[in-house]
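#onboarding

Welcome to the new folks! Below is a worked example of what a typical request in this channel looks like: someone posts a single protein sequence, and someone else replies with the predicted structure as tokens. Don't worry about understanding the tokens yet, we'll cover that in week two.

Example request:
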Amino acid sequence: MEIKQTNKMMKKGITQLFIKVMAFLILTPSIAFAADPPGIPDGWSDGYVYANGIRIHYYHAVPAPEKPVIVMVHGVTDIGLSWTPLTWKLQDSYDIYMLDARGHGLSDPFTSSDDGETLIKDVIGFVKAMNINKPILLGHSMGAATVMRVGAEYPDLARAVIMLDPFLGSFNPDGSRTPPSTPKNEAKENSQSDKSPQIKRSNNVVPEKQVAGNNQNYNDLVAKGHLDNPKWGMVDCQYWALSKKQYHGPYTQEQSQAMRGTMSSGDALAKITVPSLVLKADAPPERRKANEEAVKGLLRVKLVHMDGAAHNLHHDQLENTVKEINEFLSKL
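Example response:
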């Protein structure tokens, strides 16, 4: 009797192990063949401009010189190529440029003189250097704050502004964030529970940690991105991994202020004079209500909460993101 029970348990254990192995092989076939980071997509190009005191690196999708121009600005630790799946969906109708922000990708690093205006002026400098007339500005996270402020401070520059999950609220002295009409303790909890693979915003700058991140194995990073974000496509994970290996700043507290200062958008949203779209991550009713209060009375601003999407909503809900952007742009 004991022998039969033992055999039964062994068979059950072997079966469970077999199921787990097969599940891993089925779910991660692409990871096994992702030995090298992907290059620039077919038909795209890249280049540099010298603007605001540095070389700014950019990617250019399939050229569409007769179409409206979109300039895309990514979030903290990402790169221009992080926009690839979204750009593929839009490039037939728009001429698209994707920047590597200062200290990211192949752009030059932060400098000791940078401040909360620097990343804003980088975008302005790029647009002027490329002689782009009335671009549509599209940003995510820190990039969303950047284009929000560009729209507010340079009202004649853009044709429209699109912001993917910008923070709507203010920063506290301790680095936590207070959404509108939301208690500070709740805001602190939310900022700490953000499951986005972006780096956590902190007052501490440890260059050695950044270098350690650059030295991580590319395949391991792809696997982590895939495991942590099951809604993402493999291309999302591949360029996410590459961006972490290329991230190179800031290295000092002073340089870090440039990024934090950029995201202190204050009442910038209310000052934008062109049509604007805000796509926010999924959120509980009280958070949605706070976001709605933040845009109340702003007739040029359209706010949409993306069901089922976390902070990187263009990766989590690509098709819905494209749908909302196309619908918004069709009315310009």
